[in-house]
């Protein structure tokens, strides 16, 4: 079964967060999310809204397009 777009975006968030040496908890705090919600987002178990992705991009200091480079 192929990956969903949620899973692909979640993996990209993990990749970028890891490259920037930011913990999942730290990213969740920067976004004002619970750590459990960030975990679900990264695993692709949450269908993120555009405003959620905007918060993640702002916290990671990246352009939105970076999340979709898979």
UniProtKB/TrEMBL annotation:
<dbReference type="InterPro" id="IPR001387">
    <property type="entry name" value="Cro/C1-type_HTH"/>
</dbReference>
<dbReference type="Pfam" id="PF13443">
    <property type="entry name" value="HTH_26"/>
</dbReference>
<protein>
    <submittedName>
        <fullName>XRE family transcriptional regulator</fullName>
    </submittedName>
</protein>
<dbReference type="GO" id="GO:0003700">
    <property type="term" value="F:DNA-binding transcription factor activity"/>
</dbReference>
<feature type="domain" description="HTH cro/C1-type">
    <location>
        <begin position="13"/>
        <end position="67"/>
    </location>
</feature>
<dbReference type="InterPro" id="IPR050807">
    <property type="entry name" value="TransReg_Diox_bact_type"/>
</dbReference>
<dbReference type="InterPro" id="IPR010982">
    <property type="entry name" value="Lambda_DNA-bd_dom_sf"/>
</dbReference>
<dbReference type="GO" id="GO:0005829">
    <property type="term" value="C:cytosol"/>
</dbReference>
<dbReference type="GO" id="GO:0003677">
    <property type="term" value="F:DNA binding"/>
</dbReference>
<keyword id="KW-0238">DNA-binding</keyword>
């Amino acid at each position: 079964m192929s990956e969903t777009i949620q899973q692909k975006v979640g993996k990209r968030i993990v990749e970028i967060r890891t490259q920037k040496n930011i913990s999942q908890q730290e990213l969740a705090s920067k976004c004002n999310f619970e750590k459990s919600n960030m975990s679900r987002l990264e695993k692709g178990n949450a269908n993120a809204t555009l405003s959620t992705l905007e918060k993640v991009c702002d916290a990671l200091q990246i352009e939105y397009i970076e999340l979709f480079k898979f």
